[in-house]
Amino acid sequence: MTQVTRAWGFLVLFTLLSIAASHSGLTGLMINGLILATAFAKGRWMLMDFLNLRGVPAGWQVLFLCWLALVTIIPWATAAFPLLRV
User: Fold this and answer.
1) Does 53 reside within a domain?
2) SS (HEC) of 51-76
3) At what angle do helices 58-84 and 29-45 cross, to 10 degrees?
4) pLDDT at res. 59
5) Which of these, 29, 33, 50, 86, is most buried using a 10 Å CB contact count?
6) Secondary structure letter of residue 31 according to DSSP
7) pLDDT the model gives residue 86
């Protein structure tokens, strides 16, 4: 099994996990965090395997992964911020 095929399998698995979590009826930061964590994992595999970032210099990998982390953390933090206010 090639690395791209394995990555595709994980993408399908994470997509099904996200769908199941969103349709479970549960709400809250934990479910949102789970869905966003799977989105981050899917995004990382897309960047590394399908866009072939494994062969580029480490600086570019860090740049793209930081961007992906911001894109997934900001929505969760936006939802969590009102709950943290006392």
Assistant:
1) yes
2) CCHHHCCHHHHHHHHHHHHHHHHHHH
3) 170
4) 93
5) 33
6) H
7) 58
How far apart, in whole angstroms, are the C-alpha atoms of residue 39 and residue 22?
A: 13
pLDDT score of 67: 95
| Rounded Cα gap, residues 72 and 68, in angstroms | 6
In a domain, 86, yes or no: no
Q: Which domain holds residue 74?
A: 3-81
Q: Is 7 part of any domain?
A: yes
Q: What distance in Å separates the CA atoms of residue 21 and residue 1, rounded to the nearest whole number?
A: 28
Asked if 46 and 4 count as a contact pair (C-beta separation under 8 A), the reply is: no
pLDDT in single tens digits along all 86 residues of the chain: 787 788 788 888 888 887 887 787 777 788 888 888 888 988 888 888 788 888 899 999 999 999 999 999 998 888 888 877 75
Note whether 4 and 50 are within 8 A (CB). Answer: yes
Q: Token digits for 1?
A: 């099994």
Residue with tokens 């009102």: 82
